[in-house]
Amino acid sequence: MQKIIIRLTIFRMENKLIWTTVQKRVDDLIPQKINPRSINKRQLEDLKRSLEKYNLVEIPAVDLDGTILAGHQRVKILKILGRGREFIDTRIPNRKLTKEESKGYLIGSNALGGEWDFSLLKEFKTDLLIESGFSEHDISNIWDNNLHVNQDENFSLEKELKKIKKPRVKLGDVISLGKHKLICGDANDPEVVKNFLEIKKHQ
């Protein structure tokens, strides 16, 4: 038992992320394929002026392969300013981040500044967004206010219903649709209505 505990402790220590500062050339830094943070023209100009006046104060974080984890917009501005061949300080980890760690850090580090690109943000798991600081209410509002469902003219309700072999929803289940809630049950049944109102009252 003691050997197992020691091995687990060593494993955790080896996998613990430790960050160091290393100089990297701007042109060698690789943008994420999916970066849900966007920046408008005014914010771009503000950041450009800040870099020209104060230089690079908040340094980018990059993975071992040079993929940018935080600082996409700063790197973008540096390239616009013709500083692509320049070496800058970056923060790098002692090991390559897992896919989930990389996505989590990307969301968490972008929590402030810029604007969200909601069409890309939807590619991230809801659990990951919640862990990164979004509340369930925030996420519901994001989807309600920014994502739109395209109506399919070929959609047939009857055909879709026939495809259902085993329904996932059971009687009594409450389903959240953005700011709205539905209950699976008979709306004419006073007991169903009573249970639904009790559930809503405690949420």
CATH class category of the largest domain: Alpha Beta
C-alpha-based Rg, rounded? 24 Å
Describe the largest sheet: 2 strands, antiparallel
Strand order of the largest sheet: 1-5
Question: TL;DR of this structure?
Answer:
This protein is α+β, with helices and mostly antiparallel strands. It has helices at 2-15, 41-54, 72-80, 99-109, 118-121, 126-131, 136-146, 157-163, 190-201; strands spanning 19-25, 37-38, 61-62, 68-70, 87-93, 115-116, 174-177, 180-183.
Describe this structure in words.
- With 203 residues, the protein is of the alpha+beta class.
- The chain has 9 helices and 8 strands.
- The two termini are 44 Å apart.
List the helices and strands and how they pair.
Elements: H1 2-15, E1 19-25, E2 37-38, H2 41-54, E3 61-62, E4 68-70, H3 72-80, E5 87-93, H4 99-109, E6 115-116, H5 118-121, H6 126-131, H7 136-146, H8 157-163, E7 174-177, E8 180-183, H9 190-201
Antiparallel strand pairs: 1-5, 2-6, 3-4, 7-8
Helix pairs in contact: 2-3
Q: Can you give keywords for this protein?
A:
Conserved hypothetical protein from pyrococcus furiosus pfu- 392566-001, ParB domain; two-stranded antiparallel ribbon; alpha+beta; 2 domains; 43% helix
